[in-house]
């Protein structure tokens, strides 16, 4: 039997994540070449309205979303934020500001987690302390557009290429949830997207999938050591929010997902809110439970036809969804996955302690963030495999037939 927060508390948790006052929300930056959908009249398509469950009708009346085109039963969608139009009540960051490591050192604890994204030669760190309050960052690194997403209720941090059909989409928080996972919306077509998979599930673009951009959740201290010239999502994003406080206090220590937003009984093979490294390559997905990779240190496997290696380290990395002050969160460690190839060479790895790993083929020594620092391959870097650090219940719900690695 699972226990979960009552509906009233669940709603309060999500509302607590909403940043600032209505005036703050009004200041949310929108790309200049798009118009506000809030100026559009309510839908009068009774044929479409008739298929929308009553729970959704009260919050989607003004939406131009084509609810007649969908890949899911609409009753799987749940209202996370009760408002006449909940879209972007948790405001995405549309024009992100960045600062240096030196500037951020004063407010980010060494053990605090964040999303590491490397595009070309630029490394960026998106602290979860900021992402818990915004969930989406519409960003661009050089000429490369990216959308950085994080769902606190599933602990899924996923980065995508937001380009669909040659157009760069702007994404926001719809205020809806499916199986407790963030449902995004794009401003151009108002289609709805599943965050954990990057698939459009309702609307004009139903069936389209966003291409993932490989990333990892890592500790601040590991990022600063590996990328001393890296860029950090700045503390001041123009919303007047004091970041570093977890609006989901105690969530990761509960017995299961919030029942109001999750329709199934969680798979009981592992604790519902235990973490797994979920690796997806092509059409195949595999899970590597933290409790397993912690014992092994390094796991060598094949997903699809691709050799991967999954590592565990940085044992002091904090849980961003535990205590009120994120830097004081319980230690959960870091789980990362890489493609196990350098050039034409496929490697197998073993953990040798102190967040160091050695490949069997050349004896080179590698850091937790995938850089070779000793041996014949010194100076090489492993490419991250497309992966996430989701809660087990979320992995099992969205990838129910996928393999779970066991030694």
Main features:
2 domains, single chain, Rieske Iron-sulfur Protein, five-stranded mixed beta sheet, five-stranded antiparallel beta sheet, 407 residues, globular, 32% strand, alpha+beta
General description of the model:
The chain has 2 domains: 7-219, no CATH class; 248-404, 3-layer Sandwich (Rieske Iron-sulfur Protein). The protein has 9 helices and 29 strands. The protein has helices at residues 7-17, 22-26, 46-49, 54-60, 101-104, 128-134, 220-226, 290-296, 392-398, and strands at residues 77-79, 98-100, 113-119, 122-127, 136-141, 144-151, 156-161, 163-164, 167-168, 171-178, 181-186, 192-194, 199-202, 211-213, 216-219, 231-233, 276-281, 284-289, 298-303, 306-313, 334-339, 341-342, 345-346, 349-353, 356-359, 365-367, 372-374, 387-388, 403-404. The strands form 8 sheets. The chain has a 5-stranded antiparallel β-sheet, with helices on one face. A hairpin with a 2-residue loop joins strand 5 and strand 6. The chain starts with 6 loop residues before the first helix and ends with a strand.
């Amino acid at each position: 039997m699972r226990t979960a927060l009552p509906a009233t508390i669940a709603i309060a948790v999500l509302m607590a994540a909403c940043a600032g006052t209505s005036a703050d929300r009004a200041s949310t930056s929108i790309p200049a070449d798009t118009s506000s959908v809030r100026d559009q009249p309510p839908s009068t398509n009774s044929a479409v309205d008739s298929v929308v469950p009553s729970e959704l009708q009260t919050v989607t009346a003004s939406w131009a979303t084509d609810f007649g085109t969908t890949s899911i039963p609409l009753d799987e969608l749940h209202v996370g934020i009760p408002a006449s139009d909940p879209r972007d009540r948790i405001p995405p960051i549309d024009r992100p500001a960045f600062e240096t490591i030196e500037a951020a050192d004063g407010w980010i604890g060494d053990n605090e987690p964040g999303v590491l994204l490397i595009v070309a030669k630029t490394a960026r760190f998106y602290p979860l302390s900021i992402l818990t309050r915004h969930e989406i960052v519409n960003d661009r690194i050089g000429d490369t557009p990216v959308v950085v997403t994080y769902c606190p209720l599933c602990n899924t941090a996923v980065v995508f290429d937001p380009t669909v059909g040659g157009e760069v989409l702007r994404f926001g928080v719809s205020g809806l949830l499916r199986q407790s996972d963030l449902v995004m919306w794009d401003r151009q077509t108002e289609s709805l997207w599943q965050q954990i998979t990057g698939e459009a599930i309702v609307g004009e673009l139903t069936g389209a999938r966003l291409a993932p951009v490989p990333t990892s959740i890592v500790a601040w201290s590991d990022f600063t050591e590996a990328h001393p010239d890296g860029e950090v999502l700045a503390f001041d994003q123009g919303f007047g929010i004091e970041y570093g406080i977890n609006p989901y206090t105690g969530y990761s220590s509960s017995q299961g997902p919030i029942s109001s937003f999750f329709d199934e009984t969680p798979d009981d093979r592992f604790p519902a809110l235990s973490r797994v490294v979920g690796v997806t390559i092509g059409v195949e997905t595999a899970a590597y439970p933290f409790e397993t990779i912690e014992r092994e240190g390094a796991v060598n496997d094949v997903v699809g036809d691709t050799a991967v290696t999954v590592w565990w380290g940085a044992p002091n990395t904090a849980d961003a969804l535990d205590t009120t002050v994120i830097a004081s969160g319980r230690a959960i460690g870091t789980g990362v996955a890489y493609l196990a190839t350098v050039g034409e060479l496929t490697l197998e790895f073993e953990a040798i302690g102190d967040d160091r790993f050695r490949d069997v083929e050349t004896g080179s020594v590698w850091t937790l963030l995938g850089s070779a620092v000793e041996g014949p391959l010194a100076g090489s870097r492993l490419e991250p495999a497309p992966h996430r650090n989701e809660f087990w219940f979320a992995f099992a719900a969205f990838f129910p037939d996928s393999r779970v690695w066991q030694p």
